[in-house]
Amino acid sequence: MKKLMIAALMMVGTSAAFAGDSDALKAILKTNSYADAEQLIKQNLNTLANSAEKAKAYNHLVDLAMKVYSDQQAIEQTNMTNKQLGLKKDPQPYDTTAMYNSAVQAIKAGLECYKYDQQPNEKGKVKPKFDGNIARLWGARTNLVNGGQIAAQKGNAKKVLEYWGTFLDTESEPMFASMDRKSESEYIGQVALFGARYAYQEKQMDLCEKYCDIAMKSPAEAKDALNLKLYSMKSNLATKADSLAYVDKLKALYAQDQTNEVILDNLNGMYQGLKMDKEQLELLDAAIAANPKGFVAYADKGMYYIAKNDADKAVKCLMEAEKIQPENVVVLTYLGACLNVKASNLQDPNGRKVVYTEALKYLDKAKELDPNKAQANWGYNRYQACYGLYGAKDPKTIAAEQESH
To answer: Which of 99, 175, 199, 245 is 20 to 30 Å apart from 299, CA to CA?
Structure first.
């Protein structure tokens, strides 16, 4: 009896080990359209026997999508070849939307196939069967960059985000870890920055920030990407709690790169807007201590003291900023304005004359650098300096008054 039981158990084990595809998988594999196969997988995923069956089901989806993609791409390539060879053949019509939609479908199905294909079998071993998907899906993924460009030319922002988004979202997928990214590194930053702009346009701020992070890895796009990221982060501030949360994000960014004056300036601006004087001064003092030649920290500290009506301290900070950027028209203008205030507070006529002379020196330079007042309106401040130095009836003062308007 014992031998019979053992034999029976062996037969059960053998039948399980060599069982064919489940009925659910057979039904999926019989489908000829992506939509039908996808629907059946959604309905029967939990009834498929194991990870191997799930991988096989999703691989069928990949095959179906790639057939549509490859058929359309073949027509496109034939048309291009005929044109390059100068052959007088009418181009065959093909569906670019179907081609790129199928590329997206194939990649998404491929990722699911890869996920299940990498899971251990009944013996605890990982034996992937569909590694061939990696190379063919990599080519389709790269081609989505072209798909995004075509969608952009058509003004279809939704498709731009779908195509470029799929390309960018799969940038760090383990399935593509073995692929050579050297050529991709030359343009992925640009694609990410454009993708971020489209995401911002479509009010998808999380995507915008995500794609900005990718673009910031590229030196050529890093500055613009950071500015867009900060602008995006700031765009939805409605409450004080939102503003404080934004401050925390800025602090985290600044902690990663304390040499970045763009982040410093934004964090300073938030502290100023929230009237967090203590935190604002601590930030600027720490920045100056870390980098005594940091223009933004001195300029922002000067503006802090202007807001506090402390002309003396503002002048000291702005003079340091002017030493670092001697042709910054905004600093020159504010420095002249603060010196005017300082002069007007002096009782000694000779002392006032000395300070007004100094103020006029900076304001004259601002006028020379920016005669049309495009960067800063130095006109009224310069008139004040001339009035204090020469008097109301002096020709220089009269000319300065005319320029102040």
So the answer is: 245
